[in-house]
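Tip: read the tokens left to right.
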């Protein structure tokens, strides 16, 4: 009952009505032991495989965007030849490895990277977060 309440609270705090599909998406994202990294497309494929149901990409996209805006997901932009956007269920400050061969994003704890010097933010601005993405290859 506690997990179900938590899922409903996440939906409501994201200004989403708890429809069957949104509840299934929320459960798929948040009822897991480990951090989950995904793109909208990979989430759609994974959910279709697990539930044997098709979810409209628009429904998935809108639900994920609402969760992101409410602070339940973080967004990771990868630049380069792949130019992908991943979403992450781990919303704490942390860093990532990105495996170019498998397209996998792997968490690195914030305390595993030490910064010697960070430039000052431009006048009138504050640094909100520093994120390191280390690209891997075979």
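Filled-in amino acids:
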């Amino acid at each position: 009952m506690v997990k179900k309440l938590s899922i409903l609270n996440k939906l409501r705090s994201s200004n989403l009505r708890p429809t069957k599909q949104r509840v299934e998406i929320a459960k798929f994202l948040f009822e897991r032991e480990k951090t989950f990294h995904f793109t909208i497309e990979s989430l759609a494929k994974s959910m279709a495989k697990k539930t044997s149901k098709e979810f409209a990409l628009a429904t998935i996209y809108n639900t994920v965007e609402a969760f992101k805006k409410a602070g339940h997901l973080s967004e990771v932009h990868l630049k380069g030849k792949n130019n992908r956007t991943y979403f992450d269920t781990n919303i704490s400050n942390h860093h990532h490895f990105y495996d170019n061969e498998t397209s996998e994003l792997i968490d690195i704890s914030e305390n595993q990277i030490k910064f010697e010097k960070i430039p000052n933010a431009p006048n009138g601005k504050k640094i909100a977060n520093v994120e390191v993405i280390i690209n891997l290859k075979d």
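The chain has a mean pLDDT of 89. Residues 2-136 form a domain with the Arc Repressor Mutant, subunit A fold (CATH 1.10.10.10).
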